[in-house]
Amino acid sequence: xxxxxxxxxxxxxxxxxxxxxxxxxxxxxxxxxxxxxxxxxxxxxxxxxxxxxxxxxxxxxxxxxxxxxxxxxxxxxxxxxxxxxxxxxxxxxxxxxxxxxxxxxxxxxxxxxxxxxxxxxxxxxxxxxxxxxxxxxxxxxxxxxxxxxxxxxxxxxxxxxxxxxxxxxxxxxxxxxxxxxxxxxxxxxxxxxxxxxxxxxxxxxxxxxxxxxxxxxxxxxxxxxxxxxxxxxxxxxxxxxxxxxxxxxxxxxxxxxxxxxxxxxxxxxxxxxxxxxxxxxxxxxxxxxxxxxxxxxxxxxxxxxxxxxxxxxxxxxxxxxxxxxxxxxxxxxxxxxxxxxxxxxxxxxxxxxxxxxxxxxxxxxxxxxxxxxxxxxxxxxxxxxxxxxxxxxxxxxxxxxxxxxxxxxxxxxxxxxxxxxxxxxxxxxxxxxxxxxxxxxxxxxxxxxxxxxxxxx
Length: 457
What we know:
Elements: H1 14-23, E1 27-29, E2 41-43, H2 45-64, E3 69-71, H3 80-86, H4 88-91, E4 93-98, E5 105-107, H5 113-118, E6 132-135, E7 138-141, E8 151-154, H6 159-164, H7 166-173, E9 179-188, E10 203-213, H8 218-236, E11 243-247, E12 259-267, E13 270-279, H9 283-292, E14 298-300, E15 306-308, E16 311-318, H10 319-330, E17 331-338, E18 341-349, E19 360-364, H11 371-382, E20 388-390, H12 396-406, E21 410-414, H13 416-421, E22 423-428, E23 434-438, H14 442-451
Parallel strand pairs: 3-9, 19-20, 19-21
Antiparallel strand pairs: 1-2, 4-5, 4-6, 7-8, 9-10, 10-16, 11-12, 12-13, 13-16, 14-15, 17-18, 21-22, 22-23
Helix pairs in contact: 2-10, 3-9
């Protein structure tokens, strides 16, 4: 970026995003009728479609477009020794402080240094407790007895499932270093402080890829994956001036990391981590080899059967956090001149068409005279290739606004002229431009528009 933004640029606030998400069926509070469950959220009809599209785009980027990366779906419940070897039992903690006056709880690393030094609450000015460590793993029991021998954990990350299967994948798929293993899956963290909607939750999904490389080539591959992950967000159509790199300093580096960078996004609440790219060295495989007693060395058959423990370059992004980023990035409020009314505003989600929950909505101008039946036929034709919606309720302008708010890139209007000459009106969400095209050319025109899409704002 030529100049870094210091404040959020755009009309979105977390209150607006949260309200829109519930109103349009993106995200609901979990167990809302019982008062809600903190740190847990449910994804409604539009939300699950958006989440699935983000997931599929990432999976395609990592596996389909790379011959040297394969997929995995590891179990959530793993042997408890996995988490001892990984360091999670010992090191997976948050520093917490409480306010003795207002009883608020904070992560010590997320409050201003002057407040922490003075032990002063940033909310009410009351006295803060000393900092203490809190382990974030959910602990439960497996089997009939509930004692120390039956303790098991809900995984706090998906990466360890990849490491313990690394040798299985080499042997079953004949993989050669360098190669990667990708996984999307649920993870669980007992976050004491959850806020900013779905940014930090107790139950979430991760999109992780672990790339195994020869020691000595790790710095080169680390830089390569930084370039690739940055380019991915450009491909998604994200506002690139709302992204930046943040390198972990010595005090920030995790116990396993040789080097680490975060891609940060400028959310309405400020710069926050979106994805991490980490050089994990050979820490993970070395630890699992020590704790399991299994030989996890790689045998390089193309190089005199040399043996070594690969270094690992990790790319790790939260699926649900990426969804929040996409919502914030797409949200816009725009003043439009509609039939001479200068006070007309619209809320629009400018999703990339490949991510939009609904690609095309079909709208009959009237319910009668066969227009609804014709519109339904067109919808059925389009749904073979696109995610579609059908809406015949209310004035056509109001229906356009509803689709804008849901982020639908294209609307097809069927009117009386459609019956006469088999043409329809294709409307574009971002520009609100409308063009008349033959019905037979509709699907191909939409495909071309998606391929050529460039964000206006």
